[in-house]
């Protein structure tokens, strides 16, 4: 399985902060926002990762993450010249995906919870079709909404409905088989002039190949697309890390625990940052 991080878009809800920089390069407490979706792909065991970003931010991402070799993965990059919808990621990433299945995560989504690895493994083990997630929210009208039967089957999907049929929002994390490439190419452009991910998911639903995993009450999903969301996410990360002494989205630690790098490599990465609490934390892991 391969992984894609969609880190394009103009981030207009965060203006003026994002007038000259990608929002995924802004900090969430002590690390760049892009570290959080990247950590999810690492937890999935995915080692081939594509980052889709804007032309202006490409070199900055390359400077930040490089080839990924330092954490034992392969990171490549593709430019999205204009924001044309989430589903365009599969069109832009066609050559990268090849004949493999793929996981797509939006670059401004943060997931955390004790059962996260189990949930990710459950989704990854689904060989056919598509898997999305349902997360209960207080105001579902602001999100894509999934309606689920008592048996756990998906009944309907709607994008920001005025009258939601459930309280389950669809977070920006999706698992697909290889058919998603051709399906994305077949989707009609919406009124927003975009290739909507909901349209892709509805095709899988009509084919009865769409699965939904409900994230429980112990799981945190934070959308950082607004200044308030970024502040809340930073406070959440600070609270957990200070209370537990365990870091969220430390990509070096995850790569080490996944066996992508060894202890000597981990220590070298920690030494590079030993003037910071982040680097000191890495060194405590040895």
Can you give a write-up of this model?
This protein is 33% helix and 22% strand. It has helices at residues 35-43, 58-65, 88-92, 94-97, 116-124, 180-186, 197-206, 227-244, 251-257, 263-272, 277-284, and strands spanning 2-6, 27-28, 31-32, 48-53, 74-79, 102-106, 109-112, 130-136, 144-148, 154-159, 168-169, 173-176, 210-214, 220-223. Strands 1, 4, 5, 6, 8, 11, 12 and 13 form an 8-stranded mixed sheet that branches. α10 runs antiparallel to α11.
- Taking all Cα atoms into account, the compactness measure Rg is 18 Å
Briefly note the structural class of the backbone: alpha/beta
Rough outline = globular
SSE string: EEEHEHEHHEEHEEEEEHHEEHHHH
pLDDT < 50 stretches = none
Helix percentage: 25-40%
Q: Biggest β-sheet, characterized?
A: 8 strands, mixed
**If helices are DSSP runs of H or I spanning 4 or more residues, what is the number of helices?**
11
The first-to-last residue Cα distance is 29 Å
Question: What is the averaged pLDDT score?
Answer: 94
- Strand portion, in percent? 15-25%
Write down how many β-strands occur, each being a DSSP E stretch of 2 or more residues.
14
